Amino acid sequence: MKPLWIVLGAVGLIIILLLFVGGSYVSTKNTLVEKNEAINQSFSQVNVVQQRRLDLIPNLVASVKGYVAEESTVLTNIANARAGVLAAGGDHGANIEANRKLDVALGPFFRLQEQYPNLKSNEQFMRLNDELAGTENRIAVERQRYNKVLEDYNVYVRQFPNSIWAGMAGFHYRDEYFKGNPENNVAPKVDFSK
């Protein structure tokens, strides 16, 4: 009779252990699905504000063309970068890289008003420039939110025992962060001798 109780106890312990492991897996997978969807939703919000920027750029470029005809390289770079964003589609990594290139292309464009004071008197340019500046601020906020949601997911995926279940369920670390322009890592040279 005693061996039967030992066998039943061992089977019961195995069943409890399996239920615990299965529950842990299901709970972790559900959380990973939720966090993954939060990343997708946050990235969609970034895309919404970035699309607003893409819609503003042609109007802003058109308002500048008459004033800065010799700056066609700047305008061409913006047009090419904008086309790259449109071509990137839904791939997070490609979209992030294309938008980084657009950020870089817009830099010289914002400096044009320093070189061409007449632009400051163009009402349409000033209105569009203000809208674009506001949009850039929204983009920065949404990118920050996206990076925070992605960080939360990545931390969860890498924590133990979640890392075991994440690997089994096909969830992996995602390095799709919006990062600053690498060219900004080089300090500008300042020469006061001139």
Topology at a glance:
Blueprint: H1 2-65, H2 72-88, H3 92-115, H4 123-158, H5 162-169
Helix pairs in contact: 1-2, 1-4, 1-5, 2-3
Strand fraction equals under 5%
Looking at the structure, what is the overall shape? rod-shaped
For this structure, the quaternary state is: single chain
What's the total number of strands?
Answer: 0
| Continuous helix count | 5
Structural class label: mainly alpha
- Helices and strands, in order, run as HHHHH
Regions with pLDDT < 50 over 5+ consecutive residues? none
Distance between the termini: 101 Å
The proportion of residues forming helix, as a percent range, comes to over 70%
**Rg:** 26 Å
Q: Biggest β-sheet: count, sense, barrel? A: none
Mean model confidence by pLDDT: 87
Protein architecture, described:
It is a single chain. The chain has 194 residues and is mainly α. It has helices spanning 2-65, 72-88, 92-115, 123-158, 162-169. α1 (2-65) packs antiparallel against α2, α1 runs antiparallel to α4 and α1 crosses α5. The model has no long low-confidence stretch (mean pLDDT 87).
Notable traits:
194 residues, mainly alpha, rod-shaped
Short description:
Helix content is 77%, strand content 0%.
